[in-house]
Amino acid sequence: MAATQAEILIVEDDEVIVGTLAYNLARQGFEVSRATTGAEGLRMARKLRPDLILLDIMLPGESGIRVCERIREEDEDVVIIMITAKDAEEDKVRGFEAGADDYVTKPFGMKELVARIHAHLKRSEAGQRGRILEAGDLSLDTKNFVARVGGEPLRLRLKEFELLAALASDPGELKSREELAKEVWGHAGVGSSRTIDVHIRRIRAALEKKSAYDYIHTARGLGYRFEPVPRKEGVAARPPE
């Protein structure tokens, strides 16, 4: 799969701070996601597998310290930077003991924070962690190239997996054959051939044997769109195109 921009998850309940961080980080070219509670942050960390998490300590419900500990139970690699108004030495020690990689106290300078983010991501080879894409009964682990339907493994060839992940990464978005060729093969050379169509046909055939959903929809003359649509009982899978 083509390399992706580093993804940053912001877990912060102050909407002004979240908005400011998201705006500035997006301008730096990062893909940014937001969560406003510890529970939401945990769920999104599991689903998105971001490269870096900016984590406030004083969150509603579960504290950032506990959220950090729980993330570390499942993910040793993600970079976690605590951003908090708690500046006592014992607070910083608690953050590091919970598994944080860095600790930034409010108010902080955006340039300094961005510099720290770049430094951490450079060391952790950002953008190579992959993510978990979930829709309907389908799950795609883009780091380990594992596809599952209803929890059961789905056998796909590498390019079939990459093509399905390219579509599933932007649900509802129409993608032309040329766009998919660039994203999966790295060039548009196969976009005008039947290569994309053949791979799509194989992916559909594999999915239709196990899934209760139709996922890949054709826009004739334009390309393909990913959207999980439950297949009606008694209705046969779509004929080959």
Could you explain the architecture of this structure?
Residues 7-121 form the Response regulatory domain. It holds the Pfam family Trans_reg_C. Residues 130-228 form the OmpR/PhoB-type domain. The chain is α/β, with parallel strands linked by helices and 241 residues long. The protein has 2 domains: 7-121, Rossmann fold, CATH 3.40.50; 125-229, Arc Repressor Mutant, subunit A (Orthogonal Bundle), CATH 1.10.10.10. It has helices at residues 15-27, 38-48, 64-74, 89-98, 110-123, 158-168, 177-185, 195-210; strands at residues 7-11, 31-35, 52-55, 79-84, 102-105, 132-135, 138-141, 146-149, 152-153, 174-175, 213-219, 223-230. The strands form 3 sheets. It has a 5-stranded parallel β-sheet, with helices on both faces. It has a 4-stranded antiparallel β-sheet with strand order 6-7-8-9. A 3-stranded antiparallel β-sheet has the order 10-12-11. A hairpin with a 3-residue loop joins strand 11 (213-219) and strand 12 (223-230). Helix 2 runs parallel beside helix 3 (64-74), helix 6 packs across helix 7 (177-185) and helix 6 crosses helix 8. The radius of gyration is 21 Å and the shape is elongated.
